Amino acid sequence: MIGRVARSAATLAGLAVLAIVVLITYDVLMRFFFDQPQLFVDEAASFLEVVVIFGGLAYAFRTGTHVRVDLLTTHLPRRARARLRALALGLGLVFLAIVIWTTAQSALTAYRYGRVSAVMLYPLWAPMLVIPLGLALLAVVMLIALTAQLRALRSPKADELPPPEAAE
Amino acid sequence: MSEALLGTLLMAGMFVLFAMGVEISLALGIVGIAGLLYLKGWTIGLGVVGSIAWTNASSFSFIAVPLFVFMSGILLHSGIGRGLYTAVARWVSFLPGGLAVASIFSCAIFAAISGSSVATAATIGMIAIPEMERRGYYRPLICGSLAAGGTLGILIPPSIPMIIYGVMTETSIGHLYMAGIVPGIVLALLFAAFVVAYAMVWPQHAPRAAEDRGTFVEKLRSFYEVAPVALLIIVVLGSMYVGIVTPTEAAALGSFVSLILAALARKLTWRTLRDAFHSTVRTTSMVMLIIVFASVFSHVIALIGAPRALFEMVVGLGMPKWAFFTAVFAFLLVIAYALEELSVMIIILPILFPLITGLGFDPIWFGIIMIVWLEIGLITPPVGLNLFVIQGLTPGATARDMTIGTTPYVLLMIVLVALLFFVPDLALWLPKQMMGR
């Protein structure tokens, strides 16, 4: 279930990449051939970039893409490694909770003060809200990984669990 | 708490978190936020995080990162790599070790439309490895030529790490691109010269086959086969060189033309597209999250004045320039064994860059040095990404084959760094011409 949500968010982020390609190409062609630069494109593309980055976070976690150092942990006994992974996930979650809260505050402030973009005067709160949303999806995925890791610790042969999904 | 002590504690905390196996991005964020909370308190300290995240995530220059990954994903199965490799092989297979030389030159040419080393190694490797295996090439020779040839992907423009370096240090991405061309060609020639010399000493490792030598007609046909690549080079680099587009726009145009080429070759399926989406999004999310939280961390480092303190300390040592540079480079080589190099670059640039430029080194020149260092990291174990890619594409290849195969190229890259140190114009001449116009 959560795998599907994460993958759908990634597909959505991928469509945002495609949209960026089309928008910028359109802008360049209009500017070059008709001398009509499309001013909205730069800002629209920047907003879509936020969707690309934060929409993909959870999927990147599930496929084990986020870079980690395993030079030391691979030499630990299995049980210790499993415990350490649970601790690492727990720490990460506390941290994410703080960042989700503060980035949501930023978006809320932007909404309250009616902050807009420099050229097209687009309201900024909407793309800003994508940041805490994407981080929240990452937190959910990490929380599920943490519970799975804690459950695995009950078994005598506990080890660090691999990423839940293989990359395509 | 003194600033020096706080700085030391934060660095120590960062290494402990890394060692525990916390994701690098999150570890940077945890230390950064701890520092912010201590220095500025809850309200002001945390307020900065939101604006740093927003500024980085919505930066127009960074858009080029997903675009180049996407373009590679589309080109991977488009058949463009096969056309290029076959064509190049016809021209160079008269040389000893011809197919390995063709691998290197194909990588170098593909590098002019690819911003990533992994994508270059994978695209050319997919075609070249079976060809060389079939001729009975020595496995370390196969693996080495492709893993190392692939690294040219980030030195010859376009280049994703150059984009990141350019944005982080406020250096012109266009100038960095131009600065990479000559060193890239020199490195490709060094690689090829090594292969030829090797195949002359051990001819049994690179058996020759008459079929590889193209006839005159076939050689002419190869121009038609490389036409898509040539078109993409014009779109991606030419358009930027003549100044009608920015690096990000060039990336978008390149992706657009790649989509059309893949569609014309009837290789553009929903599956290809979805796979390209997913690999693009994964890579982008990972890299950009590191950039966002590394910026939080470096904000804290700047608040406590660490770059300045470090600079004064180094000046106080009174080292000659070459000794300082050697020390920095040796330190980078060692640290790269424990961490993934691109992450290291993102983490240390805010500290290292002011130091390097403060001592009078050229910012664009140093960018090229960082790129060559990243290339070395891509083919040195334990975390060299190109090693994994090529090993995965070569059935039966062992880690030992990879290490034996790539070590000579690592040495050649160190030779290039030395050349760049003594002749900085190798990198700087071309961007100077551009600035003069």
Summarize the structure.
By secondary structure, chain A is mostly helical. Chain A has helices at 2-34, 40-55, 57-62, 78-112, 125-154. The chains are: A mainly alpha (168), B mainly alpha (437).
Give a written overview of the molecule.
Chain A has 168 residues and is mainly alpha-helical. Chain A has helices at 2-34, 40-55, 57-62, 78-112, 125-154. The radius of gyration of chain A is 20 Å and the shape is elongated. The mean pLDDT of chain A is 90. Chain B has 437 residues and is an all-alpha fold. Helix content of chain B is 80%, strand content 0%. Chain B has helices at residues 3-20, 24-57, 64-76, 80-92, 98-110, 117-134, 139-155, 160-169, 173-201, 216-225, 227-241, 247-264, 270-303, 306-317, 321-335, 341-358, 363-378, 385-393, 399-422, 425-436. In chain B, helix 8 runs antiparallel to helix 17. The termini of chain B are far apart. The chains are: A mainly alpha (168), B mainly alpha (437). Chains A and B meet through helix 1, helix 2, helix 3, helix 4 and helix 5 of A and helix 1, helix 2, helix 3, helix 12 and helix 13 of B.
